[in-house]
Amino acid sequence: MTPAARLQAAIEILDFTQAGAPAEQVLTNWARAHRFAGSGDRAAIRDLVYDALRCRGSFAALGGGAGGRALMLGALRARGEDPAALFDGARHAPAPLTEAEVAALAAPAPPAEALARADWPAWLLAPLEDSLGAAAAAAVLAQMRARAPVFLRVNLAQISRTAAIAALAAEGIEAVPVALAGSALEVRAGARKIAGCAAYRDGLVELQDAASQAVAETLPLAPGARVLDYCAGGGGKALALAARAPAAQISAHDIDAGRMRDLPERAARAGARIKVLRPGQPGGPYDLVVVDAPCSGSGTWRRTPEAKWRLTPARLAELTALQREILTAAVALVAPGGTLAYMTCSLLRAENDAQADWIAQETGWPVVARRALSPLEGADGFYCAQLRRPA
Ligand SMILES: C[S@@+](CC[C@H](N)C(=O)[O-])C[C@H]1O[C@@H](n2cnc3c(N)ncnc32)[C@H](O)[C@@H]1O
């Protein structure tokens, strides 16, 4: 497909997403209906769509509207390209620019800071600034307009980082160590080959953000420790902990058993022993209880841009109430002298420090460690507070 034809495809897909359809579903339907498009075309179109969803506010401001056409015009303008060169009406290309579009594109562009603010939900600007401070919030807003890097976690129980880099390189995947976490690699080239590569199939590497890895590395984990991943989902934290301490007794629990469906297979691949518990039957007590709570996901919105536009104040209030409910249940599972690790992938104080302080007040347990990572550290936003139950 020509670059202009890819643009036209992205326009059509964005028009569906703007009408409320989930992007993944629309992309899949589009690919089914356009079998001639190769994997390179599909990946390029997907990037155009996701960039536009992430930068929806600024592209709309630059392109003069909220529809797929205006978003693509805004995208080209943001990249300093001349839209008229691709909107030329050639076969499969977008129709030529209208007079109104030419006028919109000639209007002065808003300043860079205003564009970055337009790409964050307006109602959440003040909470973000309250949480991070005005200067850091401005830097984070700018950073979050770009695509997120792809990170791998090296299964250090099976292979060293250096050997993993060599194994990946042999399959055409270029990865480099990341300072943030001892197990983390950043993929610089060949990311689309990961799911099919031997190192992944053999459980030597897993996809996991470097901030999650950094936090998992700081949790107290004595050999033989009893550990519960209470909100395990796909089991990312349980697997990271198992790689760190193969002798630990790690259990995974989630209210939704379906979320843990792939965990036995992932654990087998990694050579890890993880006991999958039934929902509502978390057992206990445990030396370490990890609560990776449901949250806004605001630290990961570079990867899931639709989520930022979907979040509402009412949903955020529901989430903070749920976090307290989960924390209250988790407290009862911690052994005397044990640790409760509360974590979210949020940047917002209401979901982070405010919740840790609340449960510390409720229990009288001291907060012994806190870590708040933002995309300025290079990975997703991630938060963790550790509370120690008195012996
Ligand atoms: C942020 S996700 C967990 C991600 C996972 N730890 C990982 O690393 O892949 C939050 C999880 O909490 C689960 N959850 C929601 N309410 C819960 C509850 N009351 N008790 C236990 N788990 C719950 C959700 O089903 C979801 O899988």
Automatic annotation (TrEMBL):
GO biological process: RNA methylation
MF (Gene Ontology): RNA binding; RNA methyltransferase activity
The entry's keywords: Methyltransferase, RNA-binding, S-adenosyl-L-methionine, Transferase
Positions with a binding annotation for S-adenosyl-L-methionine: D254, D292
Residues the record marks as active site: C345
Keyword Transport belongs to the record: no
Matching Pfam families: Methyltr_RsmB-F, RsmF-B_ferredox
Entry keyword Methyltransferase: yes
Highest taxon in the source lineage: Bacteria
Family note: Belongs to the class I-like SAM-binding methyltransferase superfamily. RsmB/NOP family.
Descriptive protein name: SAM-dependent methyltransferase
Species assigned in the record: Rhodobacter xanthinilyticus
